Amino acid sequence: MLTNAEAALKMQHVSNHRIFLTVGTEEKKMQIDAYRFAAFCARLPTAIMKVYYFPFHSKTHATILHRAVYRAFETFYNEK
Fold first, then answer.
1. Could you tell me which of 44, 54, 47 has the C-alpha nearest to residue 15?
2. Kind plus residue range of the DSSP H or E element containing 52
3. Mind listing the pLDDT tens digit for each residue in 21-67?
4. pLDDT of 13
5. N or C terminus of the chain: which is more exposed, having fewer CB within 10 Å?
6. What's the confidence (pLDDT) of residue 34?
7. Alpha carbon of 59 to those of 50, 54, 67: distances in Å?
8. Is the separation of the CB atoms in 38 and 51 below 8 Å?
């Protein structure tokens, strides 16, 4: 997925989107891929996409969802 991300975004007409990306203490590959995807998105102009990356080091796949959704809402709706 990461190797085709740039081409996939060019096919979409993405503009002014916000992405909240998080990862917990998952398998190491998942942590690395989440970081790489966040780094890729951060290189895009903010007019296309604004990326928020918040790793939750104390959470796992089973415990991250509700906290991540809550943090995303806090992040998106407290923007000035």
1. 47
2. strand 49-53
3. 888 887 888 888 888 888 888 877 776 778 888 888 888 888 899 99
4. 64
5. C
6. 86
7. 24, 12, 9
8. yes
Structure tokens at 68: 């991540």
Confidence at 72, pLDDT banded by 50, 70, 90 = very high
Phi (first) and psi of residue 34, to 5 degrees? -65, -45
What pLDDT is recorded for position 66? 92
Give Cβ neighbours of residue 70 (< 8 Å, ≥ 6 apart): none
Q: List the end-to-end C-alpha distance of the chain, in Å, as a whole number.
A: 33
Structure tokens at 74: 């806090």
Backbone angles phi, psi at 18, to 5 degrees: -120, 135
